[in-house]
Amino acid sequence: MDLLDIRGNKLKSRLLIGTGKFPSKHIIPQVIENCETQVVTMAVRRVDIGSKEENLLDYIPKDTILLPNTSGARNAEEAVRIARLARAMGCGNWVKIEVISDNKYLLPDNQETIKATEILAKEGFIVLPYMNPDLMTARRLVDAGAAAVMPLGAPIGTNKGIRTKELVQILIDEIDLPIIVDAGIGKPSQAAEAMEMGAAAVLVNTAIATSKDPVQMGKAFSLAVKAGRTAYLSKMAPIKEHAHASSPLTGFLHKGEL
Amino acid sequence: MDLLDIRGNKLKSRLLIGTGKFPSKHIIPQVIENCETQVVTMAVRRVDIGSKEENLLDYIPKDTILLPNTSGARNAEEAVRIARLARAMGCGNWVKIEVISDNKYLLPDNQETIKATEILAKEGFIVLPYMNPDLMTARRLVDAGAAAVMPLGAPIGTNKGIRTKELVQILIDEIDLPIIVDAGIGKPSQAAEAMEMGAAAVLVNTAIATSKDPVQMGKAFSLAVKAGRTAYLSKMAPIKEHAHASSPLTGFLHKGEL
Amino acid sequence: MDLLDIRGNKLKSRLLIGTGKFPSKHIIPQVIENCETQVVTMAVRRVDIGSKEENLLDYIPKDTILLPNTSGARNAEEAVRIARLARAMGCGNWVKIEVISDNKYLLPDNQETIKATEILAKEGFIVLPYMNPDLMTARRLVDAGAAAVMPLGAPIGTNKGIRTKELVQILIDEIDLPIIVDAGIGKPSQAAEAMEMGAAAVLVNTAIATSKDPVQMGKAFSLAVKAGRTAYLSKMAPIKEHAHASSPLTGFLHKGEL
Amino acid sequence: MDLLDIRGNKLKSRLLIGTGKFPSKHIIPQVIENCETQVVTMAVRRVDIGSKEENLLDYIPKDTILLPNTSGARNAEEAVRIARLARAMGCGNWVKIEVISDNKYLLPDNQETIKATEILAKEGFIVLPYMNPDLMTARRLVDAGAAAVMPLGAPIGTNKGIRTKELVQILIDEIDLPIIVDAGIGKPSQAAEAMEMGAAAVLVNTAIATSKDPVQMGKAFSLAVKAGRTAYLSKMAPIKEHAHASSPLTGFLHKGEL
Lengths: 258, 258, 258, 258
Description:
The structure is a homotetramer of 258-residue chains.
Chain A: E1 4-6, E2 9-11, E3 15-18, H1 28-35, E4 39-43, E5 65-69, H2 76-88, E6 94-97, H3 110-122, E7 126-131, H4 135-144, E8 150-151, H5 165-174, E9 180-182, H6 188-197, E10 201-204, H7 206-209, H8 214-234
Parallel strand pairs in A: 3-4, 3-10, 4-5, 6-7, 7-8, 9-10
Antiparallel strand pairs in A: 1-2
Helix pairs in contact in A: 1-8, 2-3, 3-4, 6-8
């Protein structure tokens, strides 16, 4: 069976989702069920265990892997502190590193991300770093102990699709870790395309959460990820420059048969 | 339930497939089952009912709608003769008009296609014309009695994808008949994209038949078409120029909370 | 010398421009001078020889070829009448056929365009038909006596670029008449691209007339057309899948030379 | 007058060229003259002043700015040594930093590039670092004293065009230094596009050197760069979703005027 393996965790689903931007937390369990995701990311900031208010975690099924992210961290040190806090709060030992000091494009800081990855991997975390696609950075993340590499397709929340295709394809071809395309994927067709390229998985949030029907859109992404993965495994037919008839063109009409 | 309606025929599947180019006819039933298609096209030329050899039709399940195509016709007259022959042979009254006199790109002849459509529609055929995407031609096909319009995405067999997106989108927006994107679709992601654009269905042959595993690739296309359709119905989130945080960025770290 | 030959008229410039949409007629002579165009199109409607008001023709230098267009014609008959009127008014015997009955996308009617071309070519006009890119239509235009073929890149006035690249390239490769890309070109880079593809010329209006500085933008398009044409004639270097060093990478540093 | 200002050096030309891959060194002076470049890069390795063979420098006109590059350097230290060597050899104090340890895609190492930039800028070099497009790296290069930033469009020598458009545009919008698009530009239209995006200049080598006629292709690029720059300064007309008539469509034909 074709499974996504992240540090020995064998996953059937190759769609990871985020929890931000949903019109209501109450819709999240249905989205998760419908899209069959097994890994859900959330900002540690939004997890408030001692609160009297409902906690985001109450909406995540128990068998789902939590992937706390370090959203809000502006450097490696802050990311490390947030990760440790998440673990202390009982969120487990997975962490998605987000180090962002740019408020306009929300682009990650590759250098600080490498640092945070190294520290947290040594502390036993399963580290999934979000990064600007860059081969040398990805190699350093491998060395630093990352469990997967998460290059962006386009700035967070833009729904622009995989605008960094050239660079992401190189990571897929060269890096011996799962490549999970994160940020920018705005339509199921784009998720399918990432999978056809050979990505191991995709992470989607805005495109699901801000669609008109998030529960159904979750389903659409789930189908698209399976479609793309199945196509990748079945090896696609080559692109040809000129036309090739699907049906025989040569001429029974020309042979007096009619 | 969301069904594709072609002249009162209500179809669950929005994936039509072709039968040419498969490595062996014996694989066709499995492909059909796996991709759940309900409409299968074949060149009339390849249907040979009186033959001692196995007939292509033997490989099409009984509950599948046959869509004989007029492949080989170079003008309206020949297309009409082939369509009538198909009906006489017991292939039913659906017909896909292909009028092609160009051997290099296999591009359809819109003008002759309109003529053939008009004649055959009057004779009670359910006519699905293959055409070069063109708004005025599509309007004339509507007037001629077409049951759907099948614009090409790229020349047949090229797997180049929907290179005529601009023109196909206009047909989807303006024509009050199902638009079925035919020819050129090479990957499931492209089929999903056609559906996201609002196409009613897609027809795929080469991309399935010449992949390494046609049975699985049929499944991949089936999933992709469902993904794209579901996304279309769920209304996609808008594309934004600048980044928008999925998770709150503002600063609990900055408030001395840690 | 590399000249554009339209029915024996040898032209140095491969940029044709339109006269609509300029903020003021008074700017037109400067634009023409700056962009070095030799062929200028205008709607016959706007030419009003008997008028006391200033006539558009007053702004076109004497040595410029006038290309009256049949804008406003909804069928072949109307186009023919407008063309004859233009000739009677002294606009010469060039004519750009525009037959448009669609008010939203302003897409041409290929079938009526063929009819008008045939009639006018027989009457001695130099006929340049505007058309939706379509190989069979282009072949019929050749037979009808067209002097060039003008496929659209995108709907008029959209500045979207050459969205019909696949179909236009086929015309360039297959049709033995000058192919002039008309409508949709929004930036000089897109004009250059059309020329690199092998187009004989481009026609630009909106992108020049509605830029902030039409005189300078005319210059920009003129340079771009020359750039693209020169590149086409110099044969471009091939696209490679993998990187190739521009400079020697092998190592003097590794040989103890430093 | 519109000039490119690199550390007070005011340049008329916004086309920088490389010297590798030409079929013969003898063609280089003609290319330089024809494309009007004022800055020429070469691998320090290829400069051999003491040689009895003809030196590459013999083919560079005296008034051209030399931009030695550190091609062959695998880390900051090697880049620094090569830069110093170039200066000692009389190549002046400009340097293009290339730090590449990947032999397949020849992608730069942003982290080592920042280090080399910092050291060399302090030593008085005018430093132009070649980099993988990345906002945070660009900001660090500014801090390190770079004179310009040179993001890649695609891997060196591929002629694929600006595949990193999304990321390069962000650098153009956010970084207060000239952005010079380097590597990947394969056609003049792509150079024009970079300039329309707001790039300050482009560097081209393979596309000129390996075309069939490098002297003419140099001219083509020169024209394209001017076209793109002129368009950028003239502000391009906006892209519209729907068509807008260039000529008045309303109907004199409908008013009984004919």
